[in-house]
Amino acid sequence: MSQRKLYIPEEFYEATSWREAKSLRQNLDMAKARLLVVACTFILAFLVITFRLVDVSLIRGIGGEGHKFARSPHGTSFRADIVDRNGELLATSLTTSSLYANAKVVIDSKEAAEKLVQVLPELNLQETIQKLKSDKVFIWLARHLTPQKQAEIMRLGIPGIYFRSDERRVYPHGELFSHILGFTNIDNEGLGGIERKFDQYLLSEKNALQLSLDIRVQHALRDELLAGIEKFHAEGGAGVIMDVRSGEILAMVSLPDFDPNQVGKIGSQKDALFNRITLGAYEMGSSFKIFNTALFLESKIANLSTIYDVRAPIHIGRFKITDYPHVNPPLTVAEIFTKSSNIGAIKMAMQIGPERQQQFFKKLGFFETSSIEIPEVGAPIFPKSWSEVTTMTASYGYGISISPLQLVTAIAGIVNKGMMNKPTLLKKENTQNDQGIQIVSKETSEIMCRLMYRVVAEGTGKRARVKNYEVGGKSGTANILSGRTYKKGSNMTSFVGVFPTSRPQYIVLIMVDRPQAIKETYGFNAAGWNAAPIAGKVIERIAPLLQVVPVNEEKHESLESPQLIHAKATHDTRT
How confident is the model over 190-200, as pLDDT tens digits? Predict the structure, then answer.
């Protein structure tokens, strides 16, 4: 049987070849597309990883858990400087280097820790080993290293150990402005004083923050306070100096104080952080007779020549109010103030009445916290109901507790033609448009300045006299409350001085916490024996610095007002 040969047309071969070619081209195109997708994916992943590395290592400094580093809009974490009214530097920032580790890169944690501890003995060896074993990518090891320490660590050549630029807040004057400036933590966040109040400003502004303070005046105040506390064996003290015309604070000191450069070393001395001027609330004693007398004159009930019998003690419940030292004869209103008679002050206050006294104290701001540019501000303590007993005790500075800053602010208003300005720690460029509160008339203000001058010239404040300067003032001695009773002999003493009294410019407050009687004070520890002489020494030092013009002492008698001359004449002619 013969085999038949299958006939395949040439067109079939041509068609098959075409289909295979077409399929091959399709496969090649698909492979190219897949390869392109894979390549793009790898490139995208590479870009993401690269961006993340840049973001972590350069932008955020490998920002490990719990690490926050504040930055300003200007691209720097630096805080702005703080300067005094004359541009002198009070606080600034320095660039430092801080040490961190990437535990994933560290090869031998024990060896690395041992080498680091040799350079930085403050590190704990076991804690450092555990940190380097933690497998974390960012671990703080030490902050704010010196260039020398940084160089020593770099020479060790330990894998996984790195440095980053950091910032440290520095206070060139140490303790001098501690309670005003406050301090920052290790991450440069404001934790107290101006640093806390103006935290956002200092992080966002390039220009320095200028305060009303004067370094020269601050030095004088602190020096004399320290010397006085040592001399009178006191437990502490405080002082403030204010421009009565603007409310600007030129100096503020609270002792004991602290070094804001080394806050961590305060330890158990927590009272060093307490600002007595703004945060404390105290019964201020006879300083309140300034307000009592001013209100009496404003009320037009009587005048400086009005006489009161102060010979008999006043009884309030089981308490007996007497004068110390004893002043037996009947006294004029002027003498009640200059001789600091408690009995006379009470009789004047009772004529004024509780309602008017309470309204006046409210006007002075004694029922609310003081306005000042630091967060450490204490609230006053006063009775809810204003009774006759409260009126009596408040007339000579008991039964109501206010901060020393509130006291200074109110007295500054009394002597500044009756205009009280808000206290401020910021320098004022123009004080012409200040809107203060008129608390007494200009006439009453003038009389009070003359009365305060007489207190220093011949009364309880004569140890505050300063040659060739018109100094007026008022002393205040208050027993310190221990439980529910006052501890006899344990005093908070104060003296408020104003100068020059003919045209008041500055007010000085000195407070001494529990001063002791010494041989020089003949066994006394009242304010006239300790706070007054400290104030006099402060005024003697700062008056020339503040360019206060001295006067001829022979002209002092001409400073007396007609009302005072009349009051003295009444004293001389009465029987």
Answer: 999 999 999 99
Alpha helix ranges (H) inside 239-313: 289-299
Reading phi first (left if > 0) and then psi (alpha if -120 to 50, else beta), residue 481 is in: beta
CATH topology of domain 82-211: Penicillin-binding protein 2a (Domain 2) (3.90.1310)
Question: For residues 76 and 72, what is the distance between their CA atoms, to the nearest angstrom?
Answer: 6
Under 8 Å between Cβ of 544 and 466: no
d(CA 54, CA 77): 19
* CATH architecture of the domain with range 217-573: 3-Layer(aba) Sandwich (3.40)
Q: Residue 136: what pLDDT?
A: 87
Count of positions (residues) in the chain: 575
DSSP 317: T
**286 annotated active-site:** yes
pTM for the full predicted model: 0.80
Question: What angle do the packed helices 289-299 and 342-352 form, to 10 degrees?
Answer: 40
Instruction: Inform me whether the pLDDT recorded for 9 exceeds 80.
Output: no
pLDDT tens profile 45-61: 666 565 555 444 443 44
Identity at 173, one-letter amino acid code? H
Query: Kind and range of the H or E element at 133?
Result: none
Cα 12 to Cα 4, 7, 25, 174, 447, distances in angstroms: 19, 11, 20, 102, 130
> What contacts 155, CB < 8 A, 6 or more positions away?
none
Amino acid identity, position 549: V
**Residue 33 in this model has a pLDDT that exceeds 80:** no
Quick one: tokens of 47? 């870009």
The catalytically annotated residue of 212, 246, 286, 401 is 286
The CA distance from 92 to 172, in Å, is 8
- For residue 169, the cross-strand partners are 93
